[in-house]
Amino acid sequence: MEEQSVLNKHLDFTQNIIERMAKNSFSIKTWTMVIWAGFALYVISIEGFDFGKFLFLIPIISFWFLDAYFLRQERIFRDISDGFKKLKLKDPKDFVYDIPKQLKTSKNKFFKVMFSITLNIFYISHIVFIIISSLTS
Predict the structure, then answer these.
(1) Cα–Cα distance for residue pair 80/51, rounded to 1 Å
(2) How many whole angstroms separate alpha carbon 47 and alpha carbon 59?
(3) Would you say 87 and 137 are in contact if contact means Cβ atoms under 8 Å apart?
(4) How far apart are alpha carbons 84 and 76 in whole angstroms?
(5) How far apart are alpha carbons 113 and 117 in whole angstroms?
(6) How far apart (Å, rounded) are the C-alpha atoms in residues 54 and 130?
(7) Which residues constitute the domain of residue 77?
(8) Cα torsion at 116, 81, 103, 115 (round to 10°)?
(9) CA–CA gap between residue 108 and residue 17 (Å, rounded)
(10) If we measure between CA atoms, which residue out of 78, 63, 65 comes closest to residue 27?
(11) 79/99 Cα distance (integer angstroms)
């Protein structure tokens, strides 16, 4: 009985981490949209070529990296959670979060996550829009 209780606590803890990472990722996407909207207003107000328009790429690319980081962490903790569900604990002390080991052995490599289809569609479309509108205005 105690084993199940310990396992449930660890699963709850892991699920809370996953939820927090998902919220961080959503928050970053929200800020990206705010910056993109600011860029659109800036483009409307400025006529002709202005190098300042390219400065909007810096936060968009930075947020892309941050979003990839949080998504990778979320995926790693999902793997950990799946591993916990498969465990048959003999002793509650057997239960260890070995995050550095998980980071090294994870199949979710940073750039693989960064260039996943979902992040590519979101961020590359913003980057392409900024570049095209900066060059054509």
Answers:
(1) 46
(2) 22
(3) no
(4) 12
(5) 9
(6) 7
(7) 2-136
(8) 0
(9) 17
(10) 63
(11) 11
Residue-wise pLDDT for 7-49, tens only, equals 778 788 888 999 999 999 999 999 999 998 988 888 878 777 7
**119 contacts 113 by C-beta, under 8 angstroms:** yes
Q: Which of 60, 34, 28 is nearest to 131 (CA)?
A: 60
Domains in the chain, number: 1
* Nearest to 42, CA basis, from 59, 67, 63, 24: 59
Taking CA 113 as the corner, what is the angle to CA 109 and CA 117, rounded to the nearest 5 degrees? 150
CB 84 within 8 A of CB 11: yes
| pTM greater than 0.90 | no
Cβ–Cβ under 8 Å, residues 7 and 84: yes
The closest of 126, 110, 7 to 67, measured between CA atoms, is: 110
3-state DSSP percent of the chain in helix, strand and coil, to 5: 85, 0, 15
pLDDT digits (tens, 9 = 90+) for 52-75: 788 889 999 999 999 999 999 999
